[in-house]
Amino acid sequence: MRRVVPADFPPPVDPVKEFVRRQSDPENERVEVGIAIVGGGPAGLACANRLLQLLAGEPELSERLGEVPVAVIEKGKVCGAHNLSGAMMRPSGLRQLFPQLDPEDWPTYGQVDKDSVYWMLTANMAVPLKPTPPPFRNHGNYMVSVAELSRWMAEKAEQAGAYILTETAAAELLVSDGVVRGVRSGDRGRGRDGQQLGTFQPGCDVTAQTTVLAEGCWGHLTGVAIREFDLAANNEPQVWSLGVKEVWKVPRPLDRVIHTLGWPLRYRAKHREFGGSWIYPMGAERVSLGFVIGLDHTDATVSAHDLLQQFKQSTLVRGILEGGERVAWGAKAIPEGGYWAMPKLSAPGMVICGDAGGMVNVPILKGIHYAIHAGIMAAEEIVEALKVCSSDLRSYERRVEDSLIGRELYESRNMRQPFARDFFIGGATANAMLISRGRLPGGRWTNHRDADAPMSIGTKKDGYPKPDGKYAFDKLSSVFMTGNATRDGAPNHIRIQRHVPRELAETWRWMCPAGVYEIPEDAPERGDVDVIVNYTNCVQCGAITAKGGRLTPPEGGDGPLYQIT
Question: Which residues in 255-291 are b (16+ Cβ under 10 Å) and which e?
């Protein structure tokens, strides 16, 4: 059985050379703002809201920041258009950001009253784990759609005076004299080969006194900044998982939050299949369900989308969905490297917040409240720095380290890594860390890049169900449900080597939840093959960047338009 390492086939891209701009446009051609926030998700919008709260009491500073003191740059059609999560949110972030609001005014589906966790032995055998393991206890947390949450937070920010530029991709990082000076937006109206069409609009420089990178998972400029300023020196490499989610309208309300472990994943260490599922109620009429799989797996035919379709064949899930209708679908990568993989969170003139900085706690399946807290802390430290005209924001890093984000991620710092060795060893190690509050096992366990996992064509695909339009669906009909608005003639935003070993081509084909990568029917069964890239299908989940390719910003406004994910 031949094995191929994706990292041996790097994408044709030089991030620092292509995406760092050293000289900005003439003053009369650029847009000047006080603080530029890249990303209209929970982290960026928490930062915007908190900045405006603080600036209301700092009129001199607000005036010095100009006519647009706070601008949010969002590549989706609206804030939340590209946001997707489980999502079970701890309330601490929103309570701190909007202390005057009653939680009943938040855009949630209520609090959790009951939890259940099942060990799935087979499709027809689910063993309840009692008592509920501590990481899965969600009593008091809130069920949300992160897309809806982002739109609500954007409305609050606009009401407070934020300028929100939607359908605007941040394509380049403006850097001069070792300081981040803002970003350059991407061009619009180019053809497949980069030629200017009749609708062409060039990008422009958005200069700022401070720049906040809150781009979410696989932030394009975040990756560039990490390389430019060497922010990940001595860190473990970041690792990722891919989650595929559906929302169903159901005839019977679900009265609890459900998580599962086990089937349809395999336990043997050689497969490195780490993941699980969730099923959450969204009010009385809808449920959110999804499946997450680590991207360090080694079988090229592992597919998060198809695992979810297989999972829905189980007796447990069928009993919940029976008589229901699928109303939404989406996919997103998740940073799982934890504490050791977090980069430094600041450079002169810039900070990083939320998923872009790896602020996800995998054992407790939480990240939204971290994003909000990080946005708040970034805003407060930015204001203090700007008062004294400083671009030094290292105080933000120290504050995150000393906050609940740093403390909780440190306690779980070695929980994800052991699962790469063996599922049961990983479970035992995670329990030891949980019981000892992170003291055991000590030391620093290493991560290995997802792209370093050797891939071979295995048999995982043999268990996937055929689409029936009732419980199991194909990828293209799923992409249609996202409202994907990528223009047919837009330039390709995906970088991969096009002529690669069959094992790598199959990895990309099965991994992608949107059916972006195809292998020609007449391609040889062994050896190298050409890969067809249907980039207009892309929902910008980011998984390709973990497995040997590179996702770059599409044209502003392209991609999904998530509503209730």
Answer: eebbbbbbbbbbeebebbbbbbbbbbbbeeebbbbbb
List 143's β-bridge partners, or say none.
Answer: 88
Determine the distance from the C-alpha atom of residue 510 to the mean position of all C-alpha atoms in its chain, rounded to a whole number.
Answer: 19
- According to DSSP H, which parts of 361-474 are helical? 368-387, 394-402, 404-411, 423-435
Overall residue count recorded for the chain in this entry: 565
Which secondary structure element, helix H or strand E, spans residue 416, and what is its range?
A: none
Residue 450 DSSP class: G
Residues 512 and 520: their CA atoms lie apart, in Å, by 16
Residues 452, 457, 462, 465, Cα dihedral to 10°: 60
Report d(CA 36, CA 59) in Å as an integer.
19
Report the 10 Å Cβ neighbour count for 314.
21
Per-domain residue ranges of the chain: 32-100+147-186+201-235+343-411, 108-144+237-338+453-551, 417-448
User: Could you give the maximum distance between any two Cα atoms of the chain, in Å?
Assistant: 68
Contact call for residues 3 and 299 (beta carbons, < 8 A): no
Structure tokens at 123: 């499709």
Q: Which residue has the tokens 């509050």?
A: 437
Residue 329 CA to residue 515 CA, distance in Å, equals 14
Answer yes or no: is pLDDT of 471 > 90. Answer: yes
pLDDT in tens, 50-85: 999 999 999 999 999 999 999 999 999 999 999 999
CATH architecture, domain 32-100+147-186+201-235+343-411: 3-Layer(bba) Sandwich (3.50)
CB 83 within 8 A of CB 44: no
Task: Pick 108-144+237-338+453-551's CATH classification: 3.30.9.90, 3.40.50.2000, 2.60.40.2250, 3.30.70.360.
Answer: 3.30.9.90
Residue 401 φ then ψ, to 5°: -60, -40
Taking each continuous run of H as one helix and of E as one strand, the counts in the chain are 15, 29
Q: How far apart are alpha carbons 244 and 195 in whole angstroms?
A: 35
Beta carbons within 8 Å of 246's beta carbon, 6+ residues apart: 288, 289, 290, 308, 326, 328, 329
Of residues 153, 162, 208, 187, the one with CA closest to residue 41: 153
Determine how many CB atoms are found less than 10 A away from the CB of residue 521: 5
**Tokens in use for 406?**
């740093």
In the DSSP assignment, the letter for residue 440 is S
- Gap between the Cα atoms of 303 and 70, Å rounded: 41
Residue from 325, 380, 327, 316 nearest 351 by CA: 380
**pTM value surpassing 0.85:** yes
Of the candidate ranges 127-136, 272-281, 333-342, the one whose mean pLDDT is the lowest? 127-136
Token duo for residue 413? 């710092």
Eight-class DSSP state of 463: G
What is the C-alpha to C-alpha distance for residues 206 and 33, in angstroms, rounded to an integer?
Answer: 7
H helices of 82-188, in order, are 92-97, 146-160
The percentage of residues in the chain with a pLDDT greater than 90, rounded to a whole number, is 86
- Do the Cβ atoms of 20 and 178 come closer than 8 Å? no
Residues whose CB is less than 8 angstroms from the CB of residue 274 and which lie 6 or more positions away in sequence, other chains included: 241, 265, 293, 294, 296, 297, 416, 419, 420, 423, 426
